[in-house]
Amino acid sequence: MNAPVSRSSLQAGALDVTITINGQAYTAKIDPRILLVEFIREVAGLTGTHVGCDTSQCGACVVHVDGHSVKSCTMFAAQADGGRVETVEGLCRGDALHPLQAAFTECHALQCGYCTPGMLMSGLDLINRNPHASEHEIRDWLDGNLCRCTGYGNIVRAIAVAADAMTGRAPGRAQEHE
Ligand code: FES
Ligand code: FES
Q1: pTM (2 decimals)?
Q2: Which atom of ligand 1 is nearest to the CA of 72?
Q3: For 11, 35, 96, 140, which has the most beta carbons within 10 A of its beta carbon?
Q4: What is the pLDDT of residues 70-98, one digit of tens each?
Q5: How far apart are CA 125 and CA 90, in angstroms?
Q6: Domains of the chain and CATH, by start
């Protein structure tokens, strides 16, 4: 796991960056080497986005940048300057869970939850792109997200259930994924 970023390293280099995260603008002077995930966690204080590796493999850090899922450990914060980022904290509306969060709960699609923010943001991007994705397509899409706990079956099922709910389809495809 990456070491925490100190305030001094965030401010060294004095590059002005403004990123809108979940509808709120965050402006900071940062070192140009700061990663987007570090900006999200250390500048914005939104720690729902996780860091699970140093090799861009685990997907725990996935967020949406200008509407598309991105591993936020693979880009500099400066590359998102002026952009729009959505994190897992932006999914629910007040006390109401997003349908994908509700499906993860319903399908028991998590255990420790460390991978869950990335799974949710990746899964939502897939549903937005292809709400009719097959089990094979869901599994293929999640190739960049690793989970050490659940065995993936329930995660795949939850994404199918959420896609049905979000498109108003009658539930039923979930059985295909059991
Ligand atoms: Fe593992 Fe980004 S922290 S892929
Ligand atoms: Fe524990 Fe996925 S639920 S790593």
Answers
A1: 0.90
A2: 2
A3: 35
A4: 999 999 999 999 999 999 999 999 999 99
A5: 14
A6: 14-89 (3.10.20.30), 99-177 (1.10.150.120)
